[in-house]
Write a structure and sequence with these properties.
heterodimer, A: mainly alpha, Rna Polymerase Sigma Factor, Chain: A, Arc Repressor Mutant, subunit A, 2 domains, disordered N terminus, B: rod-shaped
């Protein structure tokens, strides 16, 4: 994350004076769109939603550029917008859950394992399969964490943010971040241990 | 082997999970270019077009109510000109003409449903003619 923060210094300057040219914005998008898409994929695991919300994230950033105070980096600000969008999306999806329950279309894609997501390698096929299953169990657990725990977990282990950066992004205390992260890790570890014990 | 899933195992699994995230988020260059193009086109959309339909309905309702409130209560509402002209037509038809029309109608053959009215008209005629006859006799005497 550090490189992009520093390289966006010029853009930050423009943001604070609310004069963001089309070229500046294009640069902002080019430097951040892959990371924002990856973050949204980790949070939602839904390609269409991640694509749409990535676009929405930058459009909101553009519209609200005058409200950027400059007390955090542009990256943190963009991350915050993306996390809020993902939270709103999941909330609306949960609200639509009961509607889907009564509709004729069954929803099965959520539980479909993506076992081909771990790179091939290693000599032992059994170990490879075990590793793939374990990754899938991490996905499974992440999906079932609370919003705060999932956001902290993804920002820490998918985006490699420091605890301070996560605290700034989610606008919470570092101690609270640690607490959420600890609970998330405990849940992941328990799920993996249960898997190894065949439970 | 006391804690089968120790920190080392967990770290390795989390690294594998992160690689999985990277792989799932990997897209070709055209995907990113298309995404930027879509963003640019959405940014260039006129603001008016982005106002939700409900907002337009609300604006229309507000304008309608505003206009209705601006019209004073004792002001006659504008009406259809054809409706206005009807009293004039009625006024133009004199009583005499009306009687002639009625007489024509009576002479043109009476439907069954109007038989009682026909009988009444005959009685009136007879009463009128007898009155006229009586008056003539009195004047002669």
């Amino acid at each position: 994350m550090a490189d992009s923060v520093l390289s966006l210094a010029a853009v930050e300057g423009n943001l604070t004076t609310t004069v963001l040219t089309a070229e500046d914005f294009d640069e902002l998008v080019r430097r951040n769109q892959k990371r924002i898409f990856r973050l949204l994929m980790a949070l939602l695991r839904d390609e269409d939603a991640a694509d749409t919300l990535t676009q929405e994230c930058f459009l909101r950033a553009y519209k609200k550029r005058s409200s950027f105070r400059g007390d955090s980096s542009v990256d943190t600000w963009i991350y915050r917008i993306a996390v809020n969008l993902a939270r709103d999306y999941q909330r609306s999806k949960r609200e639509g859950f009961w509607k889907k329950m009564f509709s004729a279309t069954p929803e099965t894609e959520d539980e479909m394992p993506l076992l081909d997501t771990v790179a091939d390698g290693g000599s032992n096929a059994e170990m490879q399969l075990l590793a793939r299953e374990e990754v899938e169990h991490v996905w499974y657990t992440v999906k079932r964490l609370s919003d705060n725990q999932r956001e902290v977990f993804v920002l820490r282990y998918a985006e490699d943010l420091t605890l301070d950066e996560i605290a700034q992004t989610l606008e919470m205390q570092v101690g609270t971040v640690k607490s959420h992260l600890n609970r998330a890790l405990t849940a992941v570890r328990k799920r993996l241990e249960d898997h190894r014990h065949g439970r | 082997m006391a804690d089968e899933f120790d920190d080392k195992n967990l770290k390795e699994t989390l690294n594998a999970w992160r690689e999985s995230v990277d792989r799932q988020a990997h897209r070709p260059d055209w995907f990113w270019a298309r995404q930027r193009t879509r963003m640019t086109s959405r940014m260039k959309q006129p603001k008016l077009l982005r106002v939700p339909t409900l907002a337009w309905a609300g604006i229309a309702a507000t304008v309608t109510i505003g206009v209705a409130l601006m019209v004073p209560a004792d002001t006659p509402l504008p009406s259809n000109p054809s409706v206005k002209s009807e009293p004039k037509i009625e006024a133009q038809v004199s009583d005499h003409e009306l009687m002639l029309q009625l007489e024509d109608t009576m002479n043109s053959g009476v439907p069954d449903a109007l038989q009682p009215a026909s009988a009444l008209a005959q009685e009136l005629d007879q009463a009128y003619s007898s009155k006229v006859t009586g008056k003539t006799k009195e004047s002669r005497q």
